[in-house]
Leucine-rich repeat-containing protein 41 (Etheostoma spectabile), 645 residues
Amino acid sequence: MPDTVRNANQRTPKEIYLKEICFQAVRKHYAALGMEAVLDLPTPLITDLLPHLTVCQLNELQPALNQRGISTHSGWIGVLQDMCGPNHVIDFNTEEAAKHEVMRLLFTLVFYGFTNPFVKRNITNLNTPSFLWAAAKCIKHFSLTTPVERLTAEERPLLELLEQRIRSVGVSQCIDLSKRRTQSALYVLHRLLDHGVAKKLVVHVQCPIMLSWILHGRGSQYVNPELKNLMHSKRASCIYKAASFRADGAICSSSLEAGASEEEDDQATPCKRSRLDYVSMDQDVESGEAKFTVDPHVLCQSFTPCNGRSAGACQWGQIECLEIRQCGSNSLRVLNSALPTFFCLRSLTLHSIATFRDFDVLGLARALKQLSQSPRSSLTELSISVLPYTWLMGILLDASPNVTSLHVEIQTVMWGLRFLPHHPRMAELDVSELPLEKLAVKVAELQTDLHFITSVLRRSPHLTSLHVAGMRLPTGSSQSQLLATLSESNHFLKSLNLEDMKLSDCLPEILNLLRDCKLEELRFNDCRLLEKWSNKEESLQQLVAALRMVPSLHTLSLAQNRLAKNVCVLAELSNFIQPADLLEFAKRLRTHPPPHRLTLNLRKNPGDRDPDTWNTALRRLRPFCVLLVEGWNSTNTLADHISNM
């Protein structure tokens, strides 16, 4: 085999050392060498070079390398490992996912002037307009903090690019609407949400008035009274009148009253922008006090210079996906007021650091019920944590009959049920069929009402994904009824994840579930499977035999079940791609070439058992496939697998 394709383990330390020196020289003198010189290298040498290149070099080379069938995945993963450390778990299976994560992390660090050891080592390559521009073309999420004045001045072209690329906006700092210095942040938010393509908003802080400003006009017809007063305050109107006076007769309506009208559509009438000079925020128009506005449309006029590119009419954007990471009672009240007319909202995620109070959740349920009663409602995904009681999950389900995906986390308060207000029993709740397709329930309580969970499953015949974690039952009870219900009522289930539950007495029900199912993913993690099995090896063999009879199953996890002593039985489940099989596949692909290039994920396969055959197969596949591969050490991997069992 030629030296250029020999396995790294077969090379001498001197060869490896010289090779490292050459790679560092290529990185340092890349501009002088040029991209073509790198592309002329043999494929194995390019693959070894990738982890040594800078982020900008990887980004420039990627399109040409992909055309040759070479993936830059290893290069991006190398950057992530350098940034996060060798012990950080990195699980990005595709080239684009790994690249996006690198660019997302670095864009935020470099743009806001943050630093870490990686940035310090690479500051020369990163602190450049070309890097920010390249990163902005890749990222889909923008994290907004302050200051962002650069985007309203020298980096304005970057803002225009972000408007075209950003799909999700995160607000990680409270914006005080009473302070003039926050107007730049409000303007950037307006540009991304109203002029850009962003449809998802993630709020990381508790700031009710800011939440009111963000939600106003972007889906809901509700106008928060406090926000209305602020937007129509004397200080706001002063700058508005000054701007209108200097606009050569052009008129711009803020459309606030139109948005408040119950008879109007949920999207306000577009507002024509005026062509005007920049209006100084420090200018005294009527009195000696400073004047400024929080109206997004007036902000848009004020921050656009007279010689700037006209963006046309200001329109209200639509928030289709809303996630509030720190949702306190005040923020929830703002949301509950907006929800009944929030017709464009498709996905809602609420997370509270402390457990939600039950009357806050009941208020949310009432708002969701009002929204669901409109035929224009779009809400299909709901996630909320942390609920104080399991029964509130049923209230939310009945309030949102069109939801197809529900994720809840439940943690019972310490004082238990004695302070509970009267609540309807399950028998009094709606028992009609639910359109649920995905359900995740994570529980942290001493005892869970199994009857409630199984009743929800019976009402959900279209369920395809179920994740239940931490469910505890009274002494002497069994989870067998849960598994039996799945067999009887949920025939379309493709993904089942049961975690931190006692299933040691449920082997018959597990076997029965596997006999006639369409499962593609199955996880029984930390379920004490062997705890009560009298003949552990024989019972495990029955389980393995049943699993092998499920043709659709491609993912199986039995972690944390103390199976190490019986790992030889599990070996029968192995479906690794062997080198000889991969070579045969490559031959058939050359005989019957695909109409377009395939992406082939070959990670976690024992190619090192026959490296010659494996590498030959890879070379034959590269003209037809983008290959995702990584190093594999069969001995170490098996040891790690057993140690985690």
Observations:
- The chain has 28 helices and 14 strands.
- The first helix runs from residue 13 to 28.
